[in-house]
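Hey team,

Filing this mostly as a record. A colleague (T.K.) asked me to run one chain through the structure pipeline before their review meeting, and I want the input and output archived in the tracker in case anyone asks later how it was produced. No errors, nothing strange. Just documentation.

Input sequence:
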Amino acid sequence: MTAVPKPPTADPYLPGHGDASWSATHYDLELTYDLVGNRLAGTATIRAVAVDDINRVVLDLAHLRVQKVAVNGRPPAKWAHHDHRLVLNLRSRIAAGEEFVITVRYSGKPRPVVLPHHGDAGWEELDDGVIVAGQPHGAPTWFPCNDRPSDKARYAISVTTAPGYAVVSNGELTSRVRRGSGETWRYWQAEPMATYLATVQVGRYRVVDLPPGEGPGGRVPIRAAYPVDATAGFEASFGRQREMMAYFTSVFGPYPFASYSVVVTDDELEIPLESQSLSTFGRNHLTGEWSEVRLVAHELAHQWFGNAVTLREWRDIWLHEGFACYSEWLWSDASGGRACGEHARHHHRRLAGLPQDLVLADPGPADMFDDRVYKRGALTLHALRRTVGDESFFRLLHTWVSRHSGGTVTTGDFEALAAEVCGRDLTPLFDAWLRRPSLPDLPA
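Output structure:
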């Protein structure tokens, strides 16, 4: 028996997802995808450990048809799949702390799930490929899972599809094998990952490795996949990707994963997509303008803030988006653009003219992706920096990542660490910025 892990938390922002009585430790996904018919066939092998004594296991799986289920190699006593929930009644009780293995074979035509407030997310068929946007509820559209951000696991992802298409997924590409009419791409994500950050991108892409750079950030392998005719646009928007990596490594600490990948789809996307060790952009993000370059910085920063260090509950979304937004301003300053303070003053004036009805530490499911969460979150960090000084502020960011990388966190965790690292009581500052809807003044 293994030590009982911290149980996945129930999340009021995304009810009806996940099962708090068990925790996944490893997903092995063997997928075959037919691009012509948009048909997915998969086998998921999930290694898990019981948090409580359990007689049943519940997984999330949307739209796809389950063909066979086993727990520890045997069929469960009974199982049912409805309303995007796969319920397995076990033959015998599994004790808290005991490891077990779930195997699910499934198939069908994957499509996004649509939820109030959050729109659609998940596996989406493109004109000539696939994009998977998992945040916050899209993972169950392509594999059975314990769908909570608090439940991180390691992943082996194998995708077989038609030759001529590149497959990009999380982590390291461990093999690429062509057999007959199919080509299989295998990826291994060694660092723990939340379900919504798992992804697969498929397209007719040119795949290149960016040249190495100087310093620790320069040694991080960076791979890019983009349409063959988009080379000039890619250089315009991503030409300084290596410099961004070096800069963020200097201010946030070592890059938290073995490599980084960037995918540019042949389609236009409303917003880029963050995934662990991977970011996805649309062709419309290749203008080279600051409005697009800032998004390149934003998504890279999420590798530290959101992917390595992940919220435990969706109410704490500012710990992702506020930090990534502030990283845009930091890069602007460091790269010769508008100073960080100028960005802060501009967005403070803008927020002052908007409704003052959002509480940053608990914005509610309808407003969790409201732009005010992003900008007020960034302003909170700027106010903190102005209050404690650069030395303490950047030491705090380093410590935040090094202490919590691979885990999940809350706003309270950040407040406690800020007080510890900065050596002072910061409760009045955090109360004003995080728990009251009115917009505070920026510190001088």
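Quick notes for T.K.: The domain at 1-197 is CATH 2.60.40.1730 (Immunoglobulin-like). The longest helix spans residues 371-388.
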